[in-house]
Amino acid sequence: MSSVIIVILVTLGTLFVLLSAIGLVRMPDTYMRISVNTKAATLGVGLILVGTAVFFNDLSTTSRALVIILFVFLTAPVSAHLIGRASYFMGVKLWKGSVMDDLRGKYQKNSHVLKSEIDDTPRNNVDHSRSEDDIVK
């Protein structure tokens, strides 16, 4: 019975890691790649580690797997957020099909201040609008 559970957990984990890799290649911009990679890979690694803990059925291995899962679940979203935020502040363009830019007009590139409301000095703000040269026809 435990071998069936192990096979299911590791197979699901492997499928989520595979979906993460496919999403990394298929998504159109940096922000979507970060999102899909963080979510799918975190879940995939977690499932594989749970399968490892069930396979070894040992307190030492199980506790190590649980600590690794906790570490990955705590650090992956934070690091993805920081990478996405740094990308936005560096001026990485959004996908042309993006519907909303929540930070438009709120980040000043000179002072690196992020405000909660739209700033009235647009010359200091990061501009993610697409020019005609950026659009591939």
UniProtKB/TrEMBL annotation:
InterPro entries: PhaG_MnhG_YufB. Coiled coil: none annotated. The chain crosses the membrane at residues 6-25, 37-56, 62-83. Pfam families: PhaG_MnhG_YufB (PF03334). Keywords: Membrane, Transmembrane, Transmembrane helix. It comes from the Bacteria. One of its GO terms (molecular function) is sodium:proton antiporter activity. The keyword Magnesium does not apply. Residues 118-137 are annotated as: Disordered. PANTHER family: ANTIPORTER SUBUNIT MNHG2-RELATED. This is Sodium:proton antiporter. It comes from Salegentibacter salinarum.
